[in-house]
Design a protein that fits this description.
Elements lengths: L2 E2 L2 E2 H15 L12 H17 L12 H40 L10 H16 L2 H15 L6 H50 L3 H38 L2
Antiparallel strand pairs: 1-2
Length: 246
C-alpha cells in the first residue's frame, strides 16, 4: 500500500472525505468567494494530521471499491453534519443582511450580494473565528474519529451523525451565536443611523448609491483588521495543531 507521510493513502482518503464536508461549509475556508477546489485543497492538507490521530483500522485498501466509496460517503456525511450546524449561524446572518438590503433597496436579483448582507456575513464569520470556533472544529473532527472511525458501522454512523455530533455542534453554535448576535445588533444600529442620514442624501440625488458606497467603505476600513485577525488566528491554529498532534 502506498504511504503518505506514514498514512495509508486509502485511510487518508476516508479522513479527507470527512474533513472536506467541513471545509466546504464552514468559514473562513467555506466563505462564498473561495472556489470549491481551493476548499478541497485545504481539506487535503488538514486531513494529513487528522488522519495521524485516527484509530488504527484494518487496511481499507483491501476493501472492494464499492464498499470503500460507501465508507467515503458516510465520512462525507459526518463532515457535512459537523460543518452544517456552524455554517447555519453564519449564513443566517447573511440572510438577515440580504433582507435588510431588499428593504433598503440596496439588494440585487442575486441572493446575498448586497452590502449589508456582505457586512453581516463578515461580522458573523469574525465572531466564529474570534471565539475559537475553528479550533473547536478541529477538536470535534478528532473526537468524531475516535467515536466513529473511518470505517463506521451502520449503528455507530447513525448514532454519531444523528445524535452526538448535532448535540455537540448545536452547543458550539449557541456559543458562537452570542457574539455574532451582538455584532449584528451593533451593525443594525449603525444601519438605522445611516438610514436617518440617508434621507438628506436622497434629497441631494445620491440616494441610489449611498447604500453600496457605505458597505464598500466599511469593508475597506475593516480590511486591515481582517488581515491582522486572519494572520493571528492562522498562527493560533498552527500552534493548536502542533500541540494536538504532537
Amino acid at each position: 500500500m502506498e504511504l503518505l507521510g506514514g498514512i495509508g493513502v486509502a485511510l487518508w482518503g476516508l479522513v479527507f472525505a470527512r474533513v472536506a464536508g467541513v471545509t466546504l461549509l464552514v468559514p473562513p475556508v467555506g466563505v462564498r468567494q473561495i472556489p470549491a477546489l481551493l476548499r478541497l485543497a485545504v481539506a487535503a492538507v488538514i486531513a494529513v494530521p487528522v488522519a495521524l490521530v485516527a484509530p488504527p483500522v484494518s487496511a481499507p485498501v483491501s476493501l472492494p471499491l464499492g464498499r470503500y466509496i460507501a465508507y467515503a460517503a458516510e465520512n462525507l456525511a459526518l463532515g457535512l453534519t459537523i460543518g452544517g450546524f456552524v455554517a447555519a449561524v453564519v449564513y443566517a446572518a447573511a440572510m438577515a443582511g440580504a433582507y435588510m438590503d431588499r428593504l433598503g433597496g440596496w439588494g440585487s436579483d442575486a441572493p446575498q450580494t448586497g452590502p449589508i448582507s456582505s457586512l453581516f456575513y463578515l461580522l458573523a464569520a469574525a465572531g466564529f473565528v474570534l471565539t475559537d470556533g475553528h479550533l473547536t472544529l478541529v477538536d470535534t473532527l478528532v473526537t468524531s474519529l475516535h467515536a466513529v472511525g473511518p470505517l463506521p458501522d451502520g449503528v455507530g454512523f447513525a448514532r454519531q451523525a444523528l445524535l452526538l455530533l448535532p448535540a455537540k455542534m448545536f452547543a458550539s453554535s449557541l456559543a458562537i451565536a452570542g457574539p455574532a448576535l451582538l455584532a449584528l445588533l451593533v451593525c443594525r444600529a449603525v444601519v438605522a443611523a445611516t438610514e436617518r442620514i440617508s434621507v438628506e442624501v436622497e434629497r441631494s440625488g445620491l440616494g441610489g448609491v449611498s447604500g453600496p458606497l457605505l458597505g464598500q467603505a466599511v469593508l475597506v476600513v475593516a480590511l486591515p483588521a481582517v488581515v491582522y485577525v486572519t494572520l493571528w488566528q492562522l498562527s493560533v491554529m498552527l500552534q493548536h495543531l502542533a500541540s494536538a498532534f504532537s
